[in-house]
Specification:
Helices cover 31% and strands 27% of the residues. The chain is α+β, with helices and mostly antiparallel strands and 241 residues long.
Length: 241
Amino acid sequence: MLETYHFGKDILYVTDESEAYDSLRKEGCYVLPYLHEGIKSEDFPGASWLVEDLEKMDKESLELVYRRLAGLPWEILETKRCRVRETTVEDVDSFYRIYAEPSITEYMENLFADKDEQIAYIKDYIEKVYAFYGYGMWTVLEKESGAVIGRAGISWREGYDVPELGFVIGVPWQRQGYAYEVCKAILAYAKEEFAMEQVQALVRMGNKKSLRLCEKLGFVQDGEVWEDGAAHRLMTRGKPY
């Protein structure tokens, strides 16, 4: 079988035939193998995505697969004033402008000094983190201007068994409620989409702005930890798993 789904000018092909899969891939097409009883996964070498129950895939789900195959970012959520989407390499220049402000890196790790290293990191993150988890640190954009104003999202820190909220908003957009607006929406999204009942945040000692934001979001202090060469408050929100 061979089915087609149109997304703008592009087409996503879905097939259970290995020859059609190979042929379309060689032509540079976006192809989703349909793996069902009687079809072996080895018939689709190199496939990063497979569907086993096509009837349960709606147009929205298929569009997410198409966007992943086409290298396009997923749109995550919207708030009244912001959009949150997956990060792209085109965001890197904006990140460097945001992180150039000394107050941004006073309490958090800076970007790579070499821009090419940062771009390589973003590409690897898209391929391995977004594709595997379906979430991570995302890009925050202001709706009205379309400007990249920061980053926020959910990730996992090594050595911890609770997902972690992370956020940074550029100085020109601080003190306007953007961080609270976006983080509140992300916490709701994490709970609804991924059943993340408890989330943590690590706030470096002295970072009063982030501490106040976390408290406003409902986080409470749950101890102190030493990470990245500095003492942090371990803040948690929600019930333990």
